[in-house]
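so my prof wants the structure for this chain in the tokens format not the other one, which i didnt know existed until like an hour ago. anyway here's the sequence
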Amino acid sequence: MIKKDADMFGLKLTGGRTWSARLSIPRDRWRDVGEAFRTKSGIKQDSVMSLQTRDKNEAVQRRGAALEALRSQVNEKLAAIGKPPLEGDWRPRTVTERAVNDALSAKKAIEEASTAYSPDRNADGTVNENVPTNERDNLHHVLTSQAEDVAESLSDEEGHQYLCTFMDTLEGTATPLGPLLDRWLSRQGKSVSNGLVNRHNRVLIVFSEYLACVSGISSRPTKRQAQSVLRAFPVQKVDKKLASRFREWAEDRKAANTVNSYLSSLRSFWTWLEAAGEAESNPWAGMSRGLKKLARKEAKARGEKRPFTEQEMLALLTGEPNSRDPRMVLMLHDVFRLGLLTGARQNELCSLTVGRVVVPDNPEELWGIEVTEDVGKTDNSVRTIPLHPLVRPIIERRLKAAKGTGEPDAPLFPECPPGGEDNKRGWTFSKHFLRYRKAVLGEEGSGTDFHSTRRCFATFMETALANGAAACTELVCDHLIGHKSERLAANTYAAKRFDWSLYSEAIRGMVDKGVPERVKEALIFAS
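here's what i got, hopefully its the right format
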């Protein structure tokens, strides 16, 4: 039996006598990691990587890098489902970070101190010229002396780094980005979605790679090297010139829309820095100029997003999803049909609950579905959409099943559990629909996605209006689809909501005069 000593920590000997690195998962995170890796049992207790050696000494040497790789892999999986890393928010502070935090605290205390003239006098009443003459100067002297004491308690190299960083931060000449990023991301996490915070983190990884390259670390720096450069990089050195060169560097590697998202995140961070008094200007302001035009040009080259053609709609309405679970097959067909005749987004539909179904007292009126603020993408997304009789049976069937569970406000699509970075129900559907669309439409379906159902809805409305359906106006379509009208008269002076009867008339008119006959026949057959 192998002895369980310190040398054996994080190691495992397989039946073939080959050593592996073994990362133990904390008990309270078993379920999170099990969900991230989609284990059958729902839990995961460890993660293992072969060290490709039978020699114990070699295994011990390789263990550290392997455990770091395993931890990184697990944390990436956790981040993909919106869960915190294994270590949570904690991480060890470097000498630089300690110096910055100490200096920022000192800076705040000094700024709050009085500048009133208060000299120290000698016994004869004369002013002692060697002592500060106000509270602020005196506090500055005391706190810098304390920083010198801290530096002396460290090694020569770390002490020099601590004191230089402390003084640069205190005087505002070179404040490292690391602690500022931590403060910003912490506040962002309280006000924006997990998806946006994760996007900011991904952008910062890219920015750190750029800084590592231009700092001469390496043309292909490791993630740890790049992060160290970013966290130590002075905010004062990020100017217009550096921002412009980063854009050029990113444009050589990524599409215009992706570069635009990079610049947007960095612009948001510097906007916060300005408001916090940590930066005098925003070097990223105006840096995105021209990218939207370039993105449109790239989109044309790739093939712009478009509505489904009639043949594509028929193929998706009548096709058989390749899924072993019959519930997922039915779910795909139900959500797709609802998307075509409501114009709702996939998460808006997958998040429907018993309480979001509107059943009028008058049996002649159309039923409706509500898109509430917690699932709406924008303020304009909050709306109620009438259900055409062709798709009402879907909601009736699912409403009955949901009420049968006895759960208050049960979901209509329990097959779609929350997932992804923002814990949305549309996440599960999106993965299944992507596979289904590719299987049915193949390469000819390029330029389409589930959002194409909304494009189809808008096309149906325009066609119906041209064929005499007077209620299918552009403004009514904007209201039903959850868009803000681009016309000043409509978005400023017109009513924000019209009568239910007008929306119902528009939905009826859209189907009668805008939906192709063969598509209607397929919908009738399905209901």
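also thought this was worth mentioning. The CA atoms of residues 175 and 374 lie 39 Å apart.
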